Amino acid sequence: MPRHGAANLTTPRQCAAVLKAMGDETRLRILKSLLLGEKCVTDLTQMLRCSQPHVSHHLRMLRDAGLVEGHRHGKQVCYRVEPAVQRALKSRGEQALDFGCCEVRFPTSTLLTVQHN
C-alpha cells in the first residue's frame, strides 16, 4: 500500500486506508500515546499490556497508512506520529485532523500536549 500524509488523502481508497487503520481501539490508543511523544515498542507494550508481536502488528498498520513512522534507536525501534500529521494538528490550531474526506477529533488535553512539543 502506498504511503501518504494526512494532507493528501485525495481518493476514497486512501481515506478508507486511514480510517481502517484508525478503526481499532488498540491503534487509536497507540496513536493517542504517540501524539504525546515518541515511544519505543517496549514502552508501548508496557502501556498497552500487550505482547510485542501484537503491538508491532498494529504499528505496521498505522505505518502503512502513513500515520506513524519508525526509526531504529540502538536495539529498539521507536515510533512517532508522521511529521505531516503533526503539522496538520499544529497548523489547524484545533483538536481535529482534517483528512479531506473526514475529520478525527482528539481530546483537548491531548492536543494541548502536542502543541507544546
In brief:
By secondary structure, this protein is α+β, with helices and mostly antiparallel strands. It is built from six helices and five strands; from the N terminus they run ααβααββαββα.
Provide the spatial order of strands within the biggest beta sheet.
1-3-2
- Helix share of residues? 40-55%
Beta percentage is 15-25%
What name does CATH use for the topology? Arc Repressor Mutant, subunit A
The average pLDDT value, as a whole number, equals: 79
Total strand count, please? 5
Span between termini: 30 Å
3D architecture notes:
With 117 residues, this protein is of the alpha+beta class. It has one domain: Winged helix-like DNA-binding domain superfamily/Winged helix DNA-binding domain (Arc Repressor Mutant, subunit A). It contains six helices and five strands, in the order ααβααββαββα. The strands form two sheets. It has a three-stranded antiparallel sheet.
Strand-helix topology:
Layout: H1 12-22, H2 25-36, E1 39-40, H3 41-48, H4 52-64, E2 68-73, E3 76-81, H5 83-92, E4 96-98, E5 103-105, H6 108-116
Antiparallel strand pairs: 1-3, 2-3, 4-5
